Amino acid sequence: MDLKRRGNQTVVFANPPVILSSYTVVGPKEGEGPLGKTFNKIQKDQINGEKSWEVTESKMLQEAMQGAIDQAGIPKEEIDFMLAGDLLNQLISSNFAARQMALPFIGLYGACSTMALSMAVGSMLIDGGFARHVLIGVSSHHDTAERQFRLPTEQGAQRAMCAQWTVTGAGSLLLGKNGNGPRITSATIGRVLDFDVNDVNNMGAAMAPAVSDTIINHLHDLQRKPQDYDLIASGDLGTVGLALAGEVLKKSGVNMGAQFTDCGVLIYDSSQDVHSGGSGCGCSSVVFSGTIMQRIKAGELKRVLLVGSGALHSATSMLQGESIPGIGHAVVIEA
User: Fold this and answer.
1) Nearest to 139 by CA among 102, 85, 67, 191
2) Do 205 and 137 belong together in one domain?
3) What pTM value is reported for the model?
4) Considering its fold, how many domains does the chain have in total?
5) Are the CB atoms for 299 and 184 separated by under 8 Å?
6) What is the distance between the terminal CA atoms of the chain, rounded to a whole angstrom?
7) Tens of pLDDT along 212-235?
8) Structural contact between residues 101 and 62, judged by C-beta atoms closer than 8 angstroms
9) C-alpha dist (Å) from residue 74 to 15, 39, 78, 178, 179
10) Which of 40, 47, 172, 207 is 20 to 30 A from 217 in CA distance terms?
11) 193 and 289 share a domain?
12) Domain extent at residue 116
């Protein structure tokens, strides 16, 4: 058998899956940001008429996935797998959305790297001949994440300047074996690295080493350099983590250049008081499914490297004094 693996951590798809459609739903703060016009739907407020933030997130995810199906015009019975993930315990946003979608379901958890991880796994299913179409959905919600990981929002606790703002948003992609659209040509699965960062307010520092490691291995495996890409977007390190990753990569002999950016940096601007930028797995989900996809389709970007970054801690592990492991997964999208 001819292995599709290249180097240490990368797989190259023999029949690259096509991104047939994308759809995004975001909260009001995200809609007010610099990318507001690139999102399909902006909710009027954080609860959107539901009984809880958690219900709001699950319905937001469901709406994004249904939007991707409708845009592609693919019959639901031809979708072989639904891959979805979120930040909440036991993936409740995804599980409850899957209850309504009634599709064969695989739940994935990669923290903020879940979008890139889902794209990698979905592409493997299609390239391996196990699926014709795979539906991907990834979400986060500022208030559900705050309640689970930090402090009740009602307390109005002072946020550290290195802290990031969890994005309220859900992004969805429909991948197909055939069709028109950008293709996912390869994926690099990351390793879990832990540099003993234990500040829950500084997730960028916890994730930067793993993202750097994945980028280094990706470039080595495919014998490429950063300049071979029109855009390299991490998702999401924020301003602090992006700067740290740039320094780590530079010391490793990799000069990233101006095409290296971060979804958490792109989604908000300095007037929105988010400190280090956006976070949450909905961040890279809506930025990629929105503005990056639009730029690829418009011909502005020919080859993109999306590097999802995840802080693999939990509320329990932090209370027990554990450090924060990091992960980075990368996918290549080509026009």
Assistant:
1) 85
2) no
3) 0.96
4) 2
5) no
6) 29
7) 999 999 999 999 999 999 999 999
8) yes
9) 20, 21, 7, 12, 11
10) 172
11) yes
12) 5-176
